[in-house]
Write a structure and sequence with these properties.
With 172 residues, the chain is of the alpha/beta class. It contains five helices and five strands; from the N terminus they run H-E-H-H-E-H-E-E-H-E. It has a three-stranded parallel beta sheet with strand order 1-2-3, covered by helices on one side. Strands 4-5 form a two-stranded parallel ribbon. Strand 2, helix 4 and strand 3 form a beta-alpha-beta unit. It is globular. It starts with 13 loop residues before the first helix and ends with a strand.
């Protein structure tokens, strides 16, 4: 806890990112939007944060710290609707919304900078991540914490479909 430094900044602020990447060994790049609904109603903000800002982060690393290692937080939504289960790395990428497309672009930039500039980067396509401090106000950014909120508030959880669906979850 004493070794953590907090700098509140917007990922779109290139000057802050230039400063923040300097002298760091590893970056857990969790910057991005993840609302599938919001990406369809405001695709340009999703593009700005999930693509342009990712490229900006990588350029900051290329110019100010090529030795940094980056773990990029992707999303299971990059695959789109599952064509088979379990979904693995060989599964076709067929996003069903703007967010999935933009997260694929962000991931591809990380992998390209790894290949071309030697900036060590990998991507994790995380699914249904939940845990402390995750927003619980609505279901647009993770359904599991929304269900927990409904239980706390004494509300009924509404599920749709045949009851055959299964979900993977990851606890932070």
């Amino acid at each position: 806890k004493e070794k953590v430094k907090i700098n509140i900044s917007d990922v779109r602020d290139k000057f802050s990112i230039d400063y923040l990447v300097q002298g760091k060994d590893i970056m857990f790049n969790l910057a991005g939007t993840l609302s599938h609904v919001d990406s369809m109603t405001d695709p340009f903000t999703d593009l700005e944060i999930n693509v342009s800002s990712q490229l900006s982060i990588l350029e900051s690393c290329r110019l100010h710290n090529q030795n940094i290692k980056i773990v990029y937080a992707g999303t299971r939504n990059q695959y789109g609707k599952a064509q088979y289960l379990p979904v693995d790395e060989r599964h076709p990428l067929a996003p069903t919304d703007v967010n999935g497309i933009n997260c694929n672009a962000g991931e591809y930039y990380h992998l390209l900078y790894n290949q071309i500039y030697g900036i060590k980067a990998c991507s994790l396509r995380m699914t249904n991540t939940f845990g402390p401090r995750h927003q619980m106000k609505h279901a647009r950014q993770g359904v599991l914490n929304w269900f927990v909120r409904q239980i706390i508030d004494g509300e009924t959880i509404k599920l749709f479909g045949t009851g055959e669906q299964i979900r993977d979850i990851n606890y932070v």
